[in-house]
Amino acid sequence: MIFSSIGAAYGTAKAGIAIAGVGTFKPELIMKSLISVIMAGIIAVYGLVIAVLIAGDMDPTKTYALFSGIMHLAAGLSVGLAGTTAGYAIGLVGNAGVRAFLQQQKVFVGTVLILIFAEVLGLYGLIIALILNTRKA
Questions:
Q1: Which residues, at least 6 apart from 130, have a Cβ–Cβ distance to it below 8 Å?
Q2: What pTM does this model have?
Q3: Tens of pLDDT along the chain (137 residues)?
């Protein structure tokens, strides 16, 4: 949860700085420019989903096997580290894309496609974490 939130926070901050800059020159472009901030926020949701699933697997009345602990650690690290890198990529692409969008509106579709590819990195981590979380001792 922490690593994916770090990635989401970085992506939001990096893209948000560029959006604030765009807003001073062309305020009508702000709403279209928010897509990178929204996509960065989704990265944190991936970590939240896995954290809830892992917490749901824990029961104080039952023993907690070493294998389950390792699988939960691996699931958390896979979604967390993938979320960190995806958030970093979204922040960089969002920053550059919004600045380019200010100069030329035709780059919007290309920027969104690149943002989707960056978001998929976090989705890959979520898929692996879900697979790891279903493994039982």
A1: 50, 53, 75
A2: 0.89
A3: 899 999 999 999 999 999 999 988 988 889 988 999 999 999 999 999 999 999 998 888 889 889 999 999 999 999 999 999 999 999 999 999 999 999 998 999 999 999 999 999 999 999 999 999 998 76
User: CA-CA distance, 15 to 40, in Å (whole number)?
Assistant: 9
Structure tokens of 34?
């928010």
**DSSP symbols for 36-73:** HHHHHHHHHHHHHHHHHHHHHH--TTS---HHHHHHHH
The greatest distance separating any two alpha carbons of the chain, rounded to the nearest whole angstrom, comes to: 61
- Supply φ then ψ for residue 99, to 5 degrees: -65, -40
